[in-house]
Design a protein that fits this description.
four-stranded antiparallel β-sheet; 8 helices; alpha+beta; 4 strands
Length: 217
């Protein structure tokens, strides 16, 4: 097999002090990220979501297939349809499908089947995994690849100063119709994006300390 074409790597070089400062500064910014459920309808700056998606689309992926699609919903009628369909699935989940154990785990967050943020947020990004189809190649490690891209998307949006929420109604096949996507694309997560509403509140939860999640060997 011939060697694939290569190009020179031009890494970003920082001094050790600048590296540490950059890492600590980014960690401080990300430590303030919270999932928000009360959004303002205030429009977002032009080009903001496009820039964040550009960052997300730079994520690594299995065999560089890049098996993701970012569908941005800003049309009020489409977002209304999204809310109606998502709330129907969520009502089934909370009333019938969820176990008591699952509901107890969700209790500190205070969620239920009502999802008004799908209409009030000025934009909703629906992220799809792209699987093999008539015009798309077979992906490798699709979920892992899309998960990394979503993490980078959330980081880029928070770094820009806007709020997000990861919403995963189940099942999510209804999103193909709402977003006009083909069958080989499978919804991965729904992300409302916008400014927090005035007086927005979030659950009083805490993250594990570094000593619990970091292992040096």
């Amino acid at each position: 097999m011939p060697e694939p074409p290569m190009v020179p790597l031009r890494p970003r070089r920082l001094t050790p002090a600048a590296m540490l400062s950059a890492a600590q500064g980014f960690a401080d910014v990300m430590a303030s990220r919270r999932s928000v459920r009360d959004f303002s309808p205030q429009p977002l700056p032009q080009g903001l979501i496009e820039a964040a998606v550009r960052a997300a689309a730079s994520a690594p992926s299995g065999a560089n297939i890049q098996p993701w699609r970012f569908v941005v919903l800003t049309d009020p009628e489409r977002r209304r349809r999204l809310r109606i369909a998502a709330e129907a699935e969520e009502r089934e989940f909370y009333d019938r499908r969820a176990s008591d154990e699952w509901l107890n785990a969700l209790a500190p967050i205070g969620t239920d089947w009502h999802k008004p943020f799908l209409e009030t947020a000025p934009a909703v990004i629906v992220v799809f995994e792209v699987h093999q189809g008539p015009h798309t190649p077979k992906p490798y490690y699709a979920k892992e690849s899309v998960g990394i891209a979503v993490g980078m998307l959330l980081g880029a949006l928070h770094h820009a100063g806007v709020a997000t929420l990861t919403h995963t109604p189940s099942p999510m096949r209804f999103l193909n119709e709402i977003c006009d996507r083909p069958a080989e694309e499978r919804a991965f997560v729904v992300i409302p994006v916008g400014y927090p509403a005035d007086g927005a509140r979030v659950p009083d939860i805490h993250r594990k300390p570094l000593s619990e999640v970091l292992v040096n060997c």
